[in-house]
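Chapter review: from sequence to fold.
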Amino acid sequence: MIGENGVDVAKKLQSISPETGIAFVTTSTDHAVDAFSLHALHYLVKPVTTQGIIETFRRLAELRTEKRKIMTFTVGACRHTVFMDQICLFENDNHAVNVSLSDGRRLKVWMPFSEIEKKLDSSFLRINRGIIVNMDYIVQMGVDTCTLRNGIRLPIAVRHSTAIRAAYDDYVFDRLSHRKSFAGRG
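The token string follows.
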């Protein structure tokens, strides 16, 4: 793509149609990390093999059966639809909520924190008053702080730290157990 960056085009495509599966076909591995941060189905390097194409379509079929959950936010006059698994963090900010996304974007949403919390699945954990994190983005759960992949360190509620760390440990254990059983099926 002359004059265009495939990762930027993929970001635009996802903002328009978050349900669309994206696979990259390229001559270089230079943008592979960026592509997978967008949850790309595959990153194929030319020359593309038949096995690579088959694997891409298998992943697309899996995506269609799993149906990634989405959330839609209104920011000013614009509506933003994002996959829930792209949301790293919710932070209460007076009467607004700051939503941090995995691609570095931040959305300021004017809606009650409690309304957002009602829409979340079990991958999200309230670690402090006004702070909810996506546990898939946690790299370290300490005694009094939680560190996310993007380097953000957040305070954990001291009064509930044991329960918070236990909930995170249970989540990680469940995810690892599911991956092992899923990997054994093939």
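Two observations follow directly from the output. Residues 6-66 form a domain with the Rossmann fold fold (CATH 3.40.50.2300). The first strand starts at residue 23 and ends at 26.
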